[in-house]
Fold:
Amino acid sequence: MAIWLNKDSKVIVQGMTGATGMKHTKLMLGDGTNVVGGVNPRKAGQTVDFDGTEVPVFGTVKEAIEATGANVSVIFVPEKFTKDAVVEAIDAEIPLAVVITEGIAVHDTAAFWSYAGKKGNKTRIIGPNCPGIITPGQSNVGIIPGDITKPGRIGLVSKSGTLTYQMMYELRDIGFSTAVGIGGDPIIGTTHIDALAAFQDDPDTDLIVMIGEIGGDAEERAAAFIKENVTKPVVGYVAGFTAPEGKTMGHAGAIVSGSSGTAQAKKEALEAAGVKVGKTPTETAKLAREILSA
Structure:
């Protein structure tokens, strides 16, 4: 089992013919991802050869879905075109759109997220500014290295791409059902709570690792959700314990304002909900290991 992505997922790449899209399409195919097409209106009708695998290019997401049955899109287009690309994916009603692009204006993200809601939320958006989603051994959509872990029974949801990779590597001997990088922008699509609910319902996920960071109140809201709805063990880590007030930390959403959004406040909220919180990623992995071996 897995959440949102599996071996049967048919993936299209918006922006496949750009340098970044080409690079990561090749890596995704190498991980066994079923990439069935790319989207570029200027190159429709062409094909791209990835080491012997011919991938067709379509003019629109709708055309790609009609021709291939695609149900996942991963978006690598430049930030000034990202809103239009996501809106196109929403209009085509693709079930999952993974937005890798960083540097998107917040009002653009707000616009396409609101648009998805008006259209009935038929498209789940992951991101933007995220590493994507991987179900090891089945499918990898985004930029997560596919060779740092294996299939297993841990579910991972993380704001940070780098910490996603580290946690997967730390627990590589146990493995993961699915790992989701939700991104750290002020406005994102899929949240910690969405992933927690999905992992709670996945019979093959035994433990959930949740990685947050300073800024906002997403982790506090996730703690309240865990307390009321999650029966599986959850282990957490919050990046930014030493960040001073007003300090940004990599992500646009990671800024402390007064006592709001501090790592300590998030840690306390999570622990009050029964979540074991590590002081470092390595300690967090150790806590997960101890729970699974108990």
Summary: The chain has two domains: 11-126, 148-293. The mean pLDDT is 93. Residues 79-91 form the longest helix (13 residues).
